[in-house]
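Bug #77: duplicate submission created two jobs. Keeping one. Sequence:
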Amino acid sequence: MAAKVLIITGKLVEREELSDILRDTFEIVCASNGEEGRKLLSEGISDLACVFMRADLPGIPGAVLLKEAFSSGLTRKIPFIVIEGEDDPDTPNEWFEMGVMDFVRRPFRTRMTKRRVMNLLRISKRAEKSSEKLGAQDETLKKQFKLLTLQSEELKKSRNSLLEAIGSIVEYRTLDYSDHIERVRKFTLILGTRIMKDYPDMGLTKEKVELYATASMLHDIGKVCLPDSIILKPGRLTPEEIEVMQSHTSKGGELLEGIRSYIGREQFNAAMDICRYHHEKYDGKGYPEGLVGDAIPLSAQIVSVADIYDGLVSEKIYKKAKSKSMAFEMIVNGECGMFAPRIVESFRKSRNDFEALVDQTGMDLAEDDN
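Kept job's structure:
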């Protein structure tokens, strides 16, 4: 039985056009005014996958229906998309806070509209899995803590497993990524190994590279402290929201202090450097402290390149993936901020390995370089 899409709009042309676009994949249910929409939402449509809703509905306004859906918890389970008119003002920020995940305007583009719905469904399914994962979080961490009593190699393995478990919690919390943390770990291994071979004077060893790669799994741990309205917002962030987003570096440091005794001194120090400083730039234009040059820990410089590259080639709800070649050029040309010259040179030499990992994980979603 096909999943259902509910379309609530007083505009017949909008109901017809959206129905034509989506009916080959979904069963379509329509409401022409606020009263009909409220009835359908309150009754609960089985297998409801997504809701398209216009703000200026006849009868009950869309804002009222949205508040009711938010209060009942419906917007946390089902993606809501606002249909905006040509003369409508921008969607208010509070709508995003109540669960609106996207907006569309006529003319509706068939491919883009379908892609948006499928992306939102993917995120919604990840949210369901996230709830299950977070529900089992306490038990998982208790088991991992018990493993810390093992000695030598077993102790090292258990600590790595703990970092991976915590990193997975961050990933399920933010929802935007698909195995982002694991790919950043692998990119860190690739780049760190290349730097170790190219520049022995930088002091990297196989053990250090592995340490940095493992610690990289906690680079975004501070994001678990941020509100959903910011980390799940599909649109551009306001200056105030950017400031809150940037606070994940310091908040991450605070969270790491709480698990210091469980992950070992070396892993803690590496994770703290990476967490706090992976957004610093070589020319001092990064955050949170505006560090310059080699004042930025080497671990954070390496993970910064890995994190940015993965972000560029990954598709997100608010942007398409960049092609591998475009992502490479953007980093080496300084479009993503300045990196140390020697790190950039090693990144150049690692290009084939980076792109091979993208191919292996099926991430090459970009169609061209435009």
